[in-house]
Design brief:
The protein has 784 residues and is mainly alpha-helical. Among the domains are: 121 residues, Rossmann fold; 66 residues, no CATH class; 108 residues, Arc Repressor Mutant, subunit A; 152 residues; 55 residues, Winged helix-like DNA-binding domain superfamily/Winged helix DNA-binding domain (Arc Repressor Mutant, subunit A), CATH 1.10.10.10. 63% of the residues lie in helices and 4% in strands. The protein is built from 44 helices and 7 strands. The strands form 2 sheets. It has a 5-stranded parallel β-sheet. A hairpin with a 2-residue loop joins strand 6 and strand 7. Helix 8 packs across helix 9 and helix 16 packs across helix 20. The relative contact order is 0.04.
């Protein structure tokens, strides 16, 4: 049986609109996406002239001919010569009444981009042709197979809607193979065999060798290609491949990645055709490339796969010397933890790294143990030993940077350390001031204590901080004092305008961390002023800028910021997508570097009506907040817990609110409380907190302002008519597991009539009419 053609409704609609409003439709996707079959399907009823550019006799029609065709379809566009492409463009211009459908495995050629920019050419690409749930179900139906709802979800998750894979799987299941992981492996092997014949063998041997050697790498650029292959002509081969196929996806200028299943195929070919020693050499070459670019994460991954332990140890020590900031440690955490103690104890840089890494993991005893080990190492050295200066420098760095060290002492520590630096007694390695977060006040450390007298400290510590932090100090004091004023509810627009005028200087002479903190403060101020659209534009701008500059370490935080903005404007789709794909998953192994993400996740869970999940997300952060004196995080933690407890009718919410207000009051922090607007306002009105009535009035007024801007912020979506009872939830879980009414009777040991009553009530409360709709709604509302 030949492959079944199923076309997404979205593709059919896009094609029809293009044929009405445009002139050209350009289908571009790797092999196996059914481009030809899809074109035949959507062109049913049209008069078509089909040509193949790979045919030696290929020739464009001179004109409209005898009127026998309305649509010209040309396959294998990359095989067209330059003059033929120019001729095609001229033909399109000269025949406005005709339509053109072009088929290719590569992107739109440069000669035709003008049509796309003018709105005359509609591209239909890889993602458009991936089958959606409805189209996938039609394929299985055509093969006489009816997978269950759960099986269909699993099939889509594994196949990503790849038409060839879905057809092969449907055929195998029609032949009697059950759906299970082993079946998916057989499908993958069949796809690989097809690729080997239809794609891979079409390249010459040098190109095939190059592609296999690139398979292990997630991102490819010409310099990496030359380094890994050892062939200076490899860049030209890569250019030819890019022109001939869409197996590569361009992420940004000059950087590409393989289409995932083709990458898997090439890796399979690599291990089929190369010895273990040859594969290790490929990874070693990749490690050298990344090492030269100071991309230690990828370099270590390569050296780990090549088994080069000497290079792993060397790189970890160098990373600890050059990038001791907490963010850099967390990225390489697993490699540090695999080092033997004896190796760490022989290196001051590694002892410093381990002390900070343990602190990040909330292992404060371990952090202090490595701190003492470093101190003891230095005490055992002779006074004349130059290593004593290194140890002294690293201890001074830890005294400032360790999160468990109280910030109050820094007002004295910083000037003292700067004096030692001026006397050349210590040399400090860089700090991670913000820990990749959009804040200085609540970044690497919590500077709430400094906020009490921010103007005085700004005047006395501005210069010492700039000297101590070097590049990280550029713009930091001004950003920090602006943020301090903002947290206290003051108008900081004048300060922000001054900071924004310094962004170019910060980019040139400072660090992306401070730039991120400045823009983060701008975004928060715009949200607080009721301008979420402006905030979204600012966030989109820095996201694009950081992407172009390869600053991927900020990506998770930026995604969480997008989720928070979506919560303010009731963009449920963005919130649910973030929860499903990017929210932290393991509540038993909390990483404090991701605390912004955990707090965002709890907010999203409250908005989607799951206060119990929010409490579970928040619980592991309590020890960190207390141990490391995180006042700002503590306020957010307590208030989010209060909102969750209130929705669960748990009187503990009063203690939560009191804890938050007790935390905020000494620092006069208004924004950390008021930011929760509608969700926190009734709690403030009813909490009975009487420590400072004037301060409470300020909080209520500020929260009311936010509630007026964002009346539904963190409010659970009212998609359920009434709460489900415990028995109804039990039935719903079984219904979502595709159990029949009879099977539900057997599991719960209840009568069929009772099950039917529960199902009827569930349908009414969810506002649905069918079991499939009930499952979809239950998943959306996180009821199961």
């Amino acid at each position: 049986m030949s492959n079944v053609v199923a076309v997404n409704e979205s593709v059919r609609v896009a094609f029809e609109q293009a044929m009405e409003a445009g002139r050209v439709v350009y289908f571009s996707a790797p092999c196996g996406f059914g481009k030809t079959a899809t074109i035949d399907c959507v062109l049913a009823g049209w008069r078509v002239l089909r040509l193949d550019a790979s045919d030696p006799a290929f020739e464009l029609p001179a004109d409209a001919g005898d009127g026998t065709w309305d649509v010209l379809v040309i396959d294998h566009i990359p095989d067209m010569l330059d003059d033929e492409l120019q001729g095609l463009c001229a033909l399109i211009r000269s025949l406005p009444e005709k339509r053109f459908v072009l088929e290719s495995r590569s992107a739109v050629p440069g000669e035709m981009l003008s049509f796309q920019y003018a709105g005359l050419l509609t591209p239909i690409g890889t993602h458009d042709l991936m089958l959606d749930r409805q189209a996938t179900a039609k394929v299985f139906e055509a093969y006489g197979v009816e997978p269950t709802t759960v099986e269909l979800s699993n099939i889509l998750a594994v196949s990503h809607g790849y038409p060839l894979g879905i057809n092969i799987l449907a055929r195998r299941m029609a032949e009697g193979a059950p759906w299970r992981p082993e079946t998916a492996d057989l499908v993958r092997r069949e796809i690989f065999s097809y690729y080997d014949e239809a794609v891979f063998r079409q390249f010459d041997k040098p190109t095939r060798r190059m592609l296999m050697k690139l398979a292990p790498f997630n991102e490819v650029e010409v310099e990496l290609v030359v380094m890994v292959t050892g062939d200076n002509a490899a860049g030209e081969m890569l250019s030819r491949v890019l022109r001939k196929t869409s197996m590569f996806i361009q992420d940004r200028l000059g950087r590409y990645r393989f289409w995932p299943i083709f990458k898997s195929f090439l890796e399979w070919e690599l291990y089929q055709c190369h010895s273990a020693e040859q594969v290790r050499d490929i990874f070693d070459r990749g490690g050298i490339y990344y090492e030269l670019h100071e991309d230690y994460g990828n370099a270590l991954a390569c050296y780990s796969k090549s088994g080069n332990h000497r290079k792993i140890s060397e790189l970890l020590e160098r990373n600890a010397e050059l990038h001791p900031g907490a963010a850099h440690y967390s990225e390489l955490e697993r490699y540090y933890l695999e080092l033997p103690d004896a190796e760490i104890l022989a290196s001051p840089a590694l002892m410093q790294a381990m002390s900070m890494l343990c602190a990040i993991k909330t292992d404060y005893e371990g952090s202090e143990r490595w701190y003492r080990a470093l101190r003891d190492y230095g005490m055992a050295l002779k006074r004349s030993d130059v290593a004593r200066k290194e140890v002294r420098s690293r201890l001074a760095w830890l005294d400032i940077a360790l999160p468990q060290r109280p910030v109050e002492a820094l007002a004295e520590t910083i000037p003292a350390v700067v004096k030692l630096m001026m006397n050349h007694d210590v040399e400090l390695t860089p700090f991670s001031v913000t820990s990749n977060l959009p804040s200085i006040m609540n970044g690497g450390k919590d500077f709430s204590e400094w906020s009490r007298r921010d103007d005085v400290l700004y005047a006395t510590l501005k210069r010492p901080v700039e000297v101590l932090l070097g590049r990280d100090g550029v713009g930091l004091p001004d950003a920090a004092v602006a943020e301090s004023k903002f947290e206290k509810g003051e108008d900081v627009m004048t300060r922000l305008l001054s900071l924004m005028s310094r962004l170019t200087e910060i980019r040139r002479s400072g660090t992306p961390d401070i730039e991120f903190a400045v823009v983060g403060l701008l975004i928060r101020a715009q949200v607080a002023a009721g301008r979420p659209g402006d905030a979204r534009e600012a966030l989109a701008s820095i996201k694009e800028s950081f992407s172009e500059r390869g600053l991927v370490r900020f990506g998770p935080t930026i995604a969480a910021m997008e989720c928070r903005l979506a919560l303010h404007v009731d963009d449920d789709a963005t919130v649910e997508a973030w929860l499903a794909a990017e929210a932290p998953r393991d509540p038993l192994n909390v990483h404090v570097m991701k605390r912004y993400l955990y707090l965002t996740k709890a907010m999203a869970e409250l908005a989607t009506g799951d206060p119990r999940a929010a409490l579970l997300t928040l619980a592991p952060l309590g020890r960190y907040v207390e141990q490391c004196h995180r006042h700002l995080d503590g306020i957010s933690l307590s208030l989010l817990a209060a909102i969750a407890h209130r929705r669960l009718d748990d009187p503990a919410w009063r203690d939560d609110v009191a804890r938050a207000l007790d935390e905020a009051c000494p620092y006069r922090f208004v924004r950390p409380v008021a930011q929760f607007g509608t969700a926190v306002l009734p709690l403030l009105d009813a909490c009975g907190w009487d420590r400072d009535g004037k301060f409470l009035k300020r909080l209520v007024a500020a929260a009311r302002e936010q509630a007026a801007y964002y009346p539904d912020f963190l409010e659970p979506r009212r998609d359920v008519v009434a709460p489900l009872s415990g028995a109804e939830l039990q039935v719903l879980r079984l219904l979502c597991a595709d159990k029949s009414n009879a099977e539900i009777c057997a599991v719960l040991d209840i009568q069929l009539a009772t099950v039917k009553t529960h199902v009827s009530k569930i349908f009414r409360k969810l506002g649905v009419n069918r079991r499939t709709e009930a499952k979809t709604k239950a998943l959306k509302l996180h009821l199961v």
